Amino acid sequence: MRFPTLLACCLAVCMLAGNASAETRITIPEGSFEDTGDLPVIISGITAATGVSFELSYDKDTVRIESITASSEIPGSNVIPRIDNDAGYAKVAVTNTEGISAAESASLAVIRFTRVGSGEGTVTIQNPQWSDTQFVANNFDVVLDGNIVSLEIVTPAETAASSSSSGGSSSSSSASIATPTSERTVTPAVTATVPRATTVLPVSSNDTVETPPAVSPGTTTESTQPPVTPKAAPGFCMATVFTAGLSGIALLLYRRS
């Protein structure tokens, strides 16, 4: 007699623990859009619910609701919305004859927003409830509101990445401007005078020596060479002396005769 009673108590405790651990949640994620965008209503921790109801409050100067439709993730659902964009308010009821079950996160409905103003706003979930198979209303354990983020808002990580990228590009560009390339670098020429052998060519009396043009003031020549002074070749001098001697001897012999 005691054993069946103990077993029944254990089963009751297990059922209560299971119900306590099944946390029900309803959330709307964060979204950002320029013109029109969809935000889902996500639920979890519900099994065989006959219906879900909730209210929405939003900034009418930022967005307006175009439609609220059933999500394909939970087949057989029927959405009954009542939307008042002038007041920034909507009331939604979702029914399903097959039961609404979402042990894990699943999209229950899809809200289509249209942006009517700049900035950001909050989509607040109010009075969310779900009904069980006995049509008893239950409150959700966790409720997380949604946010509509402005496109002009940039996260700090993106800002840092953008700043480092722009800073790197600007520093590289400034470095490229400040540092001349090797093609544009002009190295001053160093002129060194190296002694070298001079070749002397025979020059006749009728030959003229070309004098290099004079350099105007302010003009720098890359290399300067001294003008070549013509010198008589040694063979030429000996031949001249020998010829003069023979001419003198011949003249003396002619006079004696």
Automatic annotation (TrEMBL):
Biased composition (Low complexity): 160-176, 184-203
Organism field: Methanoculleus bourgensis
Keyword Transmembrane helix carried by entry: yes
Region (Disordered): 159-229
GO biological process, one term: polysaccharide catabolic process
Domain Cohesin stretches: 29-121
Polar residues composition bias: residue spans: 217-226
TM segment ranges: 232-254
Classification via CDD domains: Type_II_cohesin
Gene Ontology molecular functions: carbohydrate binding
Alphabetically ordered keywords of this record: Membrane, Transmembrane, Transmembrane helix
Protein name: Cohesin domain-containing protein
